[in-house]
Amino acid sequence: MKSKFPSGWNEERVRRVLEHYEQQTEEEAVAEDEAATEQEGQTFIAVPTELLPKVRELIARRK
Questions:
Q1: Beta-carbon contacts of residue 14 (< 8 Å; ≥ 6 apart)
Q2: Of 9, 12, 39, 46, which has the highest C-beta tally within 10 A?
Q3: Measured between alpha carbons, how far is 58 from 47 in angstroms, rounded to an integer?
Q4: Is the separation of the CB atoms in 14 and 20 below 8 Å?
Q5: Residue ranges of the alpha helices (H) in 1-63?
Q6: Is the pLDDT of residue 62 over 90?
Q7: Which residue ranges make up each domain of the chain?
Q8: Euclidean distance between CA atoms 37 and 43, whole angstroms
Q9: Torsion 51-63-40-32 (CA) sign
Q10: What is the rounded distance in angstroms from the CA atom of residue 54 to the CA atom of residue 25?
Q11: Dmax of the chain from CA atoms?
Q12: pLDDT at res. 40
């Protein structure tokens, strides 16, 4: 069965991402997470799991 990837993604890109995270130390992962929360123009919020599909839909419509 052939995998279906999102637009702009392919098997090589998925492999590179997996390799990045598999080789990352715990300290590097924490630093990456902290850097992400400090980016301007983005906000992180907790969303109840059952609402996540609707939130994703709203974000997709905005793009």
A1: 5
A2: 9
A3: 13
A4: no
A5: 11-23, 26-37, 52-62
A6: no
A7: 11-62
A8: 7
A9: positive
A10: 34
A11: 41
A12: 92
What pLDDT score was predicted for residue 42?
86
pLDDT tens readout for residues 21-52:
999 999 999 999 999 888 899 888 899 999 99
Q: Could you tell me the pLDDT band of residue 61, with boundaries at 50, 70 and 90?
A: very high
Average pLDDT over residues 6-15: 93
Token representation of residue 11: 């098997």
DSSP state of 30: H
pLDDT at residue 1, as a whole number: 67
11, 3 in Cβ contact below 8 A? yes
Side chain identity at residue 56, one-letter code:
R
